[in-house]
Specification:
Order of helices and strands: EEEHEEHEHHHEHEHEEHH
Distance between the termini: 53 Å
Largest sheet: 6 strands, mixed
Radius of gyration: 19 Å
Shape: globular
Length: 251
């Protein structure tokens, strides 16, 4: 279990996160949802160890990790912009993190992961030869081969569109569930959160507005902010889809 107890973060006099309390069960997919600037990426970075906690404590399976260096926490992240090495092919990118370890790079687990992410046909391609969806799958595979205790993802679908986005979404869920991998996803998109996560953390100006299942978020929003944010964002998305199809039809 991952536990955050009264976690706060200040940058100088600016309190970005205030009194965050969360209990995340092993194997759960959690979405950190909220508008830009609400503190969700800062929260992700504190769990990862990239950003220090100002106040409060973070525990993993009962042991404090908030003062443990990032490299020793055993957590890992998939970045929004992939962060792949352009001079290496897809296979070399996936296995890069294992170079300085004693782990075998030719295991059934790695083969199964490559198959699960449908990457076998693309292993010998250089990064510039891959589509956005393929790059994201390589990035996910590279992270998971390191066997993280917790998988963190920062807006993993933001650069993708349409059916590719839906396919990557389904693959993330399938990989996380098949490996029983605790997964925390930052997103500003309620639809992504509602369709991917077991539970959603809705953040409003640095505080948790609601932490609940997607079903309860929809049926019983905790306050006006949650209701307005969810409904407004879904309405904007529907409007953009209708506009796109209208323009295509008109063309």
């Amino acid at each position: 279990m991952l536990e955050l107890k009264n976690v706060s973060k200040k940058f100088d006099d600016n309190e970005v996160l205030k009194n965050i309390n969360l209990d995340i069960e092993n194997g759960e997919i959690i979405a950190l949802l909220g508008p830009s600037g609400c503190g969700k990426t800062t929260l992700l970075n504190m769990i990862l160890g990239l950003t220090e906690v100002t106040e409060g404590e973070i525990y993993y399976n009962g042991k404090p990790v908030h003062n443990v260096p990032m490299k020793k926490r055993g957590f890992n992240i998939v970045f929004q912009d992939y962060c792949l090495f352009p001079h290496l092919n897809a296979r070399e990118n996936i296995l890069y993190g294992l170079k300085n370890t004693q782990k075998n790079t030719d295991t059934k687990e790695i083969t199964d992961l490559i198959e699960l992410l449908d990457l076998r046909p693309h292993l010998d391609k250089k990064i510039h030869e891959l589509s956005g969806g393929q790059k994201q799958r390589v990035s996910i595979a590279r992270t998971i081969v390191m066997e993280p205790k917790v998988l963190l993802m920062d807006e993993p679908l933001s650069a993708l569109d349409g059916m590719i986005k839906e396919r990557i979404k389904d693959m993330i869920i399938k990989v996380a569930k098949s490996l029983s991998l605790t997964t925390i996803i930052v997103t500003h998109d309620p639809e992504e959160a509602l369709t991917m996560a077991d539970k959603i953390v809705v953040i409003e100006e640095g505080r948790i507005a609601q932490y609940d299942s997607p079903d309860m978020i929809i049926k019983q929003p905790a306050n006006h902010f949650v209701k307005k944010f969810i409904l407004n964002q879904l309405e904007i998305k529907r409007h953009n889809i209708y506009a796109l199809f209208g323009e295509q039809h008109g063309a």
